[in-house]
Amino acid sequence: MIRKAPHIVSQLKLMCVMAGVVAIAMPAMACPIPVYQYSLEWWERDPYEVYVFDNGELNDEQEAALDKLQRISAGGEDNVPANLRLRTVQSDDEERLKAHSALRGEEPESFPWMVVYYPSISSNVRTPVWMGALNEENLDALLDSPARQEISEALLNRTSVVWVLLESGDSGADNEAYELVEREVKRLEETLVPPDIEAWGMDDIEIADIKFETLRLSRDNEDEWMLIEMLMNSEVDLEDYRDQPMLFPIFGRGLIMDALIGRGINQHMILDTAEFLTGPCSCTVKSLNPGTDLLTSVDWDGRIEPFSEEWDEQTGGGVGGFMDSADQLEDEDF
Q: Model's pTM, two decimal places?
């Protein structure tokens, strides 16, 4: 069975049509740098919203976990470079805490209680990614995992897309899906061609080669339960298809594209997604492109040496310090 909505092919085709209209009407504004490269070099991660409900009775471990969250949220060179923002809700009245809207009607099993939301800018999902007790174990799982490190390292090494296959538990279906994905991405590495920068009169910009990697992820992997929550809750209907393998393309600084599911993991759908991600970044505003940020603990700015300048859609050229998508939206004069 293939889910009917959201349908990634129709979304990408609509975006390509819109981008094409813009490019035809105002050719100077279009950006020829491929999506996989521009998103890696210039799209800042948006922060996850982490609520902590504190009844004032924290033990030493909980105090340490909350202090760590506060330092990460505040930023600073010595802190974990995780994309999160802490919101602490404190009260000795537990009934008042339980009534908070961020809990979505779910009653905390204990205090302090942590509720994690996707970034409001890069995700349309308004339900929690996860909620549970605030302790060192859960905080460590939130901040990082081996698979997220592997994905991040691949992207930092200029892998265009990491295709994460989340297994269903049906070995036959999972093996079939994995073999198809491996075959198709290897073929596409050889056949897809990035935009011709010289044809745009921009021969001073280096374009990274198209490279794909696949990562197979078991739902039973105890080290990756938080990553699985981030993937499975990135769209509202994925729980309905838990019994099928799911393919999540991840690009840029850890942006999750809509999943391909079951029979939707096929040559046509993989090609559509790959063509979009390796095509020109016609719209350089991050928030107007598909993708939900992963929570990662990586100093992306410190480890990426851009091959290009950030694009100015007004002039059709690079700028030294263009605003990121969040600042641009906040400063827009409507």
A: 0.85
Tell me which H or E stretch contains 87: strand 84-90
Torsion, Cα of 19, 24, 26, 31 (10° steps): 50
Is 3's pLDDT higher than 60?
no
Exposed (0-12), middle (13-18) or buried (19+): which is 211, by Cβ within 10 Å? middle
pLDDT single digits (tens) 154-169: 999 999 999 999 999 9
**pLDDT at position 308:** 74
Which of these, 285, 281, 282, 284, lies nearest to 332 by C-alpha position? 285
Angle value at C-alpha 8, between 253 and 238, nearest 5 degrees: 80
Q: What is the pLDDT of residues 292-303, one digit of tens each?
A: 999 999 999 999
Joined together, the tokens standing for residue 116 give: 């994690």
Q: Is there a contact between 66 and 55 (Cβ–Cβ < 8 Å)?
A: no
**Cβ contacts of 309 within 8 Å, gap of 6 or more:** 317, 318, 319, 320
Of the candidates 80, 101, 84, the one whose C-alpha atom is nearest the C-alpha of residue 45 is 84
Tell me which fold the domain 48-143 belongs to. Glutaredoxin (3.40.30)
The closest of 85, 126, 122 to 104, measured between CA atoms, is 126
- Report d(CA 312, CA 321) in Å as an integer: 10
Q: Which residue has the higher pLDDT, 283 or 287?
A: 287
CA 39 to chain CA mean position, Å: 11
Contact, 127 vs 104, CB < 8 A? yes
Kindly tell me if the per-residue pLDDT of 14 is higher than 70. Answer: no
How far from the centroid of its chain's Cα atoms is residue 302's Cα?
19
| Domain-wise residue ranges, the chain | 8-44+148-325, 48-143
- What is the Cα gyration radius of the chain? 21
Three-state DSSP class for residue 246: strand
120-157 pLDDT, tens digit each: 877 788 899 999 999 999 999 999 999 999 999 999 99
